[in-house]
Amino acid sequence: MFKKDNSCLACQKTCSSNASDNNISGEFGLNEEIIKKISKFKGEPSWMLEYRLNSYNFFKNKKMQSWGPNLDGLNLDKICFYLDPKSKNSSSWSQVASEIKQSFSDLGVIESEEKYSAGLGAQYESEIVYHSLKKEWADLGVIFLSADMALKKYPEIFKKYFGTVVDYKDNKFSALNSAVWSGGSFIYVPENVKIEIPLQAYYRMNEQNLGQFERTLIIAAKNSSVSYVEGCTANNYSSSSLHSAVVEIIVNEGASVKYYTVQNWSGNVYNLVTKRAFVYKNSSIEWIDANIGSKITMKYPSVVLAGSGAKTSVLSLAVAGFNGQNQDSGAKAIHLASNTTSKILSKSISSNGGIASFRGKVKIVKGAVNCKAFMECDSLIVDDNSEANAYPVLDVNEHNTDVGHEARVSKIADEQIFYLMSRGISEKNANALIINGFIDSFVKNLPAEYAVEINRLVDMELDGGRL
Which of 149, 189, 272, 293 makes an SS bond possible with 265, Cβ 3.0 to 4.6 Å? Predict the structure, then answer.
C-alpha cells in the first residue's frame, strides 16, 4: 500500500499516491492551512479547530528546550504530520485492509486481544483502524473509543476533560500534539465499575518521515478501576520519524488506574511525549513504563496527587542499546495534598555506546503534611563505551514529611562473568542472565503475558538486534 521510495521524500511536496483534494495525507512540513485541512477532513467542531490553531501559534513561538538530548537532527520540515492509512475505523478485523491486518497479526496484537484484553484499539499511521470493546463492559457503561470518535459521539464529556490535565502551553511538544493530534484512545469508566482485564492499544508507524500524534484521555469515575496497556513499533529507516503523544488521566475519588507502556520504536524515531495524571482523594495510579526502542526518548510520566490519601508508584525501565541512542526518561510526583504517597523506581541499562539518563522530581508543597515519597534510580553500564546519568530533584517545602532517595550505578564485573562461564555458560548467555536479574524487579510487575516479551526485547536490543 505504501511505497518506500515516494518521490515526495526528496521534493518535500504532496505525495500523489496518498493525497487527494479533501485529504491532507502525505504533505510535509506544517502551517495553518495543513491544520485547517486536518480539522476539516475529520469533520471537527469549530472549538477544536480554534484549539488547534492556538496550539500551533504557541508551538511556533516556543523555543526548543536547551536541556536534555540534542534534538538538532529532527527536521520538522521533513516530517509528514498526517498520513491516512486508507482503512476506516472498524470493530471487525475483516473490514481492515489486509496489509494492515497482517501487520498487526505478525506483531501478535490480534492473538493478544483474543486471550488477554477487555478491548483493543489499533492505530496505523495517523488513524485508528480497529477498535473493539467486549460486550460485558459496554453493557456496564464503559466507553472505549478512538479519541476522534469520542469527540463526535460524546462531544460534551470530551470537551469537559480534553486539555485539562496537559495544557497545550505546557511545553513545545504538547503544543505540537495539540495542533495536529490524530487517533489515540478515549476511556471512560463509570462509577463503581471495575474492569478486571486490561484494555489495550497498539500504535504502528509503517512509513518513513512520519509524525504520529495520538491523544489519549482516560477518566476513571469514583470507585472504579481500569488497566490500560499500550505498545508501539515502527519500521526502521535511515531518515527520522517523530512520535509526540499526549496522555491525560483523571483518577477520581477511590478509583485506581494501572497504565503500562511497552515502547519499542525503531532506531530512527524521536519519541517526545507528555504524560500526566491527576489523582484525587483516596485514589491511586500505577505507572509501569518500558522504553526499549527509539533514537531519542524524552518521557517523564507525571502524577499530581491532588487529594488526601492519593497514591502513586512509577516503575520505569530504559534500555539504551546502540551508539547514538539516548533514553532520557524518569518521572515526577507532585504532592499537593496531605497524607499522599509516591514511589518512583527507575532502572536503566546502557550498552554499545548508548546513553541512559534518569530525571526524577518529587515536590511537596507547603501545607501538604504527612506525605511519604521515595525515589530510587539504578543504572547498569555494560561496557566502557556507554553512559548513565541521573538528575534527581527533591523539592520539599514542608517539615512533617518522610522523603528518601537512593541511586546506584554498577557495571557487569569480570568476576561475575567468569563464575558463570566456569559453570559451562557462554559469555553471551552469562551477560543475559545478569541483565535479566537486574531487571527482574521491573518484569515481575508486568502482566505475565508481557513479562516474557520484555525479556526478549531487552535481549534483542543489547545484542544489536535493532541495527
Answer: 293
Of 363, 378, 309, 373, the residue nearest 343 (C-alpha): 373
Cell of 397: 517545602
Write down the pLDDT at residue 239. 86
Specify the amino acid at residue 445: N
**DSSP assignments along 328-388, one per residue:** EEEEEEEE-STT-EEEEEEEEEE-TT-EEEEEEEEEE-TT--SEEEEEEEEEEE-STT-EE
Reported confidence tier of residue 288, pLDDT bands at 50, 70, 90: very high
Whether 261 shows a pLDDT value over 70: the answer reads yes
Q: Are 204 and 104 in contact (CB under 8 A)?
A: yes
Q: Determine phi and psi for 174, rounding to 5 degrees.
A: -70, -35
The per-residue pLDDT for 13 is 36
Instruction: Kindly list the distances between the CA atom of residue 357 and the CA atoms of 66, 69, 295, 385, 409, in Å, as whole numbers in the listed order.
Output: 16, 9, 14, 15, 12
pLDDT score of 317 more than 50: yes
DSSP structural state of residue 49: H
Give residue-wise pLDDT tens across range 401-445.
Answer: 999 999 888 888 778 888 888 888 888 888 878 887 888 877 777
Residue 304 in grid coordinates: 499530581
316, three cell numbers = 520505569
Helices (H), 3-44: 8-11, 32-42
Please enumerate in sequence order all residues whose Cβ is within 8 A of that of 359, keeping only pairs 6 or more positions apart, or say none.
68, 300, 328, 329, 330, 391, 392
Percent of the chain with pLDDT over 90: 70
> What is the rounded distance in angstroms from the CA atom of residue 220 to the CA atom of residue 225?
7
Q: What is the pLDDT of residue 190?
A: 98
Neighbours of 435 (CB within 10 A): 20
Is the Cα dihedral 450, 451, 453, 457 positive or negative?
Answer: positive
Using 50, 70 and 90 to split pLDDT, how confident is the model at 26? low
C-alpha cell at 34: 495543513
Burial profile 378-402: b = 16 or more Cβ within 10 angstroms, e = fewer: bbbbbeeebebebebeeebebeebe
CA 133, 137, 138 angle in degrees (round to 5)? 65
